[in-house]
Amino acid sequence: MSKNTTKENIFNQALRMFNEQGIEYVGMREIAKELDIRVGNITYYFPTKDDIVAAIVTELADANNTILEAGDDLSMSTFLQMYSETSSNQYKYRCLFVSFVYLMEHNPKVKEVYIPNQEKRYKTIRKNLKLLMQNGYMDASLNDRTLDFLVSSISLMSRFWLSEGRLRFNDAGKRTLFKHYLELFALHLHPYATKQGRRDIDRFIDDL
Amino acid sequence: MSKNTTKENIFNQALRMFNEQGIEYVGMREIAKELDIRVGNITYYFPTKDDIVAAIVTELADANNTILEAGDDLSMSTFLQMYSETSSNQYKYRCLFVSFVYLMEHNPKVKEVYIPNQEKRYKTIRKNLKLLMQNGYMDASLNDRTLDFLVSSISLMSRFWLSEGRLRFNDAGKRTLFKHYLELFALHLHPYATKQGRRDIDRFIDDL
DNA sequence: TAAAAATTAGGACAATGTCCAAAAATACTA
DNA sequence: TAGTATTTTTGGACATTGTCCTAATTTTTA
């Protein structure tokens, strides 16, 4: 097991503190203090605080890219499972989602990494829902407008469930948050699912 | 028409700038500059920036309190109309919602005003949904779990639609945002509404 | 072992929110 | 109306923030 480099130490310590206290409320000097190094040493690896945040965003993007794309035989279970994994990644880098709007508007480096993913995300959700229709998990009579509604609604939820969770459950653990918000997500699909789809949804919720 | 007091000028100017640029990115010196007064003059009326924000929260709370409570004869139209009015107030003080989590966790004065309203809000939504059931607008067979789902889901959406809107539509006007997010809200109820309820929902959406 | 490169330290800088004492303007009172 | 008290406004000080830069130190390379 190799010793961590200074850069890794800074990244990990920053992520830990950002997740706990919020990005805006962790100072460079505090991070340095925890690691018993000087601030100038941090700025050597990360010239600005935004660079640390950008590194976090990049790691999240990479993590999400390792989640395999849906095949043509996508089932409701797989779809839910994929959502669950994405949520897991979001939780790991949750500091990003608690200050979402703020980050996007004032951190160009974050914007650069995240924006391209965003459009892709809409399309992926839409494509997956269509696959679920084709494969008999979602109601085949869903029109485009309802599909758009579901995509919008899912996007909104998946962006802000962590913020909501922070407000509502304070600093509850991952388990509590997952139980609540994955159920919320799954129930969202319920009215538009076929009998087969609903069976998968119910099983997914039971397993939470 | 009486001349505005200094305090009112400060409040209005701050709200305007907060809404446009975000609370965290408007400095006391900038507000002072716009009004051609000195910073010390602001702190005379609002000792800290948090006090300005708290004043904004209070005004929002007051505005929402003027929206009449639902009577026992609540209809789907009225329910949607009430939601629309609340959303209008949120838009007026939208700076608060773009930095929601941040505010709640680090501004005790905001927390004090908002938290009590929050629990009340859950109960109100729940009560109103039950009224809609009783009055034949929502499916009478809704169980408690589905009701909880709807309440959670509505709460999440009504807290974060403004954040989402900022990310997705950038600085689109009120009209664009309303068209999209009120429809999203209304469609949310659609699967659980009765035929009568759905008629109201469809009319509401058409009128947007 | 000496030179070069990478890393770390330490302090300076402008900007921020906050605070305070003195000046100015206004209101009040005899 | 003149003098006093109160409210309002000013201008600058303060600690803290992220950032930047130069010099010292350590590590790597030749």
Walkthrough of the structure:
- The structure is a homodimer.
- Chain A has about 210 residues and is mostly helical.
- Chain A has eleven helices and no strands.
- Chain A folds into two domains: about 5-45, Arc Repressor Mutant, subunit A; about 55-205, Orthogonal Bundle (Tetracycline Repressor, domain 2).
- Chain A has helices at about 5-20, 30-35, 40-45, 50-65, 75-90, 95-100, 100-105, 110-135, 145-170, 175-190, 195-205.
- Chain A is elongated.
- Chains A and B meet through helix 7, helix 9 and helix 10 of A and helix 7, helix 9 and helix 10 of B.
- The first copy, chain A, binds a DNA duplex (30 and 30 nucleotides) through helix 3.
Q: Gist?
A:
2 copies of one chain form a homodimer. By secondary structure, the first copy, chain A, is an all-alpha fold.
Q: What profile does the largest beta sheet of chain A have? A: none
Mean residue pLDDT of chain A = 93
CATH level-two architecture of the largest domain in chain A: Orthogonal Bundle
Cα distance spanning the termini of chain A: 34 Å
- Range of strand content of chain A: under 5%
CATH fold type of the largest domain in chain A: Tetracycline Repressor, domain 2
Which chains share the greatest interface?
A-B, 33 and 33 residues
Given as residue ranges, the uncertain stretches of chain A (5+ residues, pLDDT < 50) are: none
Text of the CATH class of the largest domain in chain A: Mainly Alpha
Order of H and E elements of chain A? HHHHHHHHHHH
Helix content of chain A: over 70%
In quaternary terms, these chains amount to homodimer
Q: Output the radius of gyration of chain A.
A: 19 Å
Protein structure class of chain A: mainly alpha
Number of domains of chain A: 2
Instruction: Write down how many β-strands of chain A occur, each being a DSSP E stretch of 2 or more residues.
Output: 0
Shape of chain A: elongated
For this structure, what is the CATH homologous superfamily of the largest domain in chain A?
A: Tetracycline Repressor, domain 2
Counted by DSSP, the helix tally of chain A is 11
